Amino acid sequence: MKIRKETTVMNIVIAGGTGFIGRELGKHFEKQNHQVKVLGRNKNNNPKVIIWDGESLGNWKNELKGTDVLINLTGKSVDCRYTEKNKEEIFDSRTNSIKVLEKAFNEIGETPKTWIQAATATIYRDEYEKPNNEYEGIIGESFSVEVAKKWEKIFDEVSLETKKVTLRMTIVLGKNGGAFPMLNTLAKFGMGGKQGKGNQYISWIHIHDLLNIIELSIKNQWVSGVINCSSPEPITNEDFMRKLRKKNVLSLGFPIPVFLLKLGAKLIGTEPELILKSRWVSSKKLGKFRYNFKYPSLDKALEELK
Ligand SMILES: NC(=O)c1ccc[n+]([C@@H]2O[C@H](COP(=O)([O-])OP(=O)(O)OC[C@H]3O[C@@H](n4cnc5c(N)ncnc54)[C@H](OP(=O)(O)O)[C@@H]3O)[C@@H](O)[C@H]2O)c1
After folding, report:
1. Any atom of ligand 1 within 6 Å of the Cβ of 302
2. CB distance 64 to ligand 1 below 6 Å
3. DSSP 130
4. Which of 35, 73, 168, 183 could form an S-S bond across to 16 if both were Cys, CB 3.0 to 4.6 Å?
């Protein structure tokens, strides 16, 4: 099996790269003149997209030749009702994509130098006591935790000789996708009150920091394993929404009680857990790697996002 050698211009493949994080990553690396290819199920007006189905081998495997870095972001959004059909797709899209990428590299007889795999900080329990870091974090119990565990287990089982990095991402804040635009719109229209009791933690990371952490883990051989992608200042939902209202120059924001959230979630086809779970996550590893956050506080992040 050929292992790719370090080169200045890298060949980067982003599987599931048509979504929010993938598009930002693609732009980030293209600006640095790296070669970026995207695997997706639809072109979405992007000529760089190579069509695959995320589960079976096809001609797309030949496009992996010469890959230095694989970044796999594939996964059906968890922002949906947890029906049996959706649950299956949430699991399968994550696990099948890993398995078929491994198979594809085996078939072409190459292995990327680095494989960066999306994962989620939702793997930790509903937490009110202290932040969960990579070494002492307490794993939770729920459907979304089961997804998170299986996702990482399947990645752990990949037997290619590649450096593996598992990104346990918290909520990624960016202008062009993810949860932020929706929360910001709520705040703009006076609906930016606390959600539920408001004492649940929101751990978050600005998209630019996430991109920098991915770059750091590609460029430094000693960076590997699980990394909690979380800014150093997780904040309660109540404080998060207060800051968001302030940014929108609105002092008023109707709080949304639990029963209304549950009803609302059903109406808009999502799960209340996404908002009500307390996610208190920190990263000891990023400190060890001496990573300097560009947006360590929510105030700084919101300044950029406004
Ligand atoms: N954004 C966040 O705050 C956050 C936080 C923690 C973890 N994550 C994880 O990070 C990854 C990327 O996040 P994102 O915000 O960029 O998500 P996104 O915008 O929903 O993009 C997900 C990608 O997965 C692909 N996909 C969806 N369903 C699929 C299926 N059934 N089979 C094959 N491919 C499928 C989509 O590509 P096509 O539909 O074009 O094929 C899309 O490019 C996801 O796995 C997500 O769970 C995100």
Report:
1. no
2. no
3. S
4. 73
Which residues, 6+ apart, have CB-to-CB distance to 240 below 8 Å?
202, 204, 298
- The predicted-structure confidence for 82-132, as pLDDT tens digits, reads as follows 999 999 999 999 999 999 999 999 999 999 999 999 999 999 999 999 999
Q: Tell me the three state secondary structure of residue 158.
A: coil
CATH numeric code, 8-305: 3.40.50.720
- Whole-model pTM: value is 0.95
**Best residue among 39, 41, 72, 150 to mutate for probing ligand 1, ranked by most atoms within 8 Å of CB:** 41
The reported pLDDT for the residue numbered 176 is 95
Handedness of CA 173, 175, 179, 253 (dihedral sign): positive
196: nearest Cα among 234, 239, 238, 145: 238
252 Cα–ligand 1 center, Å:
34
CB of 112 closer than 6 angstroms to any ligand 1 atom: no
The tally of CA atoms less than 13 A away on the side-chain side of residue 57 is 11
CA separation (Å) from 33 to 4, 11, 180? 18, 10, 29
Q: Which two tokens stand for residue 222?
A: 């000693």
Spans of all domains in the chain: 8-305
Give the separation between CA 61 and CA 101, rounded to whole angstroms.
Answer: 8
Is the alpha carbon torsion for 215, 219, 225, 230 positive or negative?
Answer: negative
pLDDT for position 267: 73
Q: Mean of the per-residue pLDDT values for the chain?
A: 93
Q: Kindly state if the Cβ of 118 falls inside 6 Å of ligand 1.
A: yes
Structure tokens at 145: 């935790």
What is the position in ligand 1's atom list of the atom closest to the CA of 44? 40
- Ligand 1 pocket residue status of 26, Cβ below 6 Å: no
For residue 118, give the ligand 1 atom closest to its CA: 10
Single-letter residue type at 73: L
Which amino acid is present at 268? I
Selection from 122, 173, 171, 185 nearest residue 148 by Cα: 122
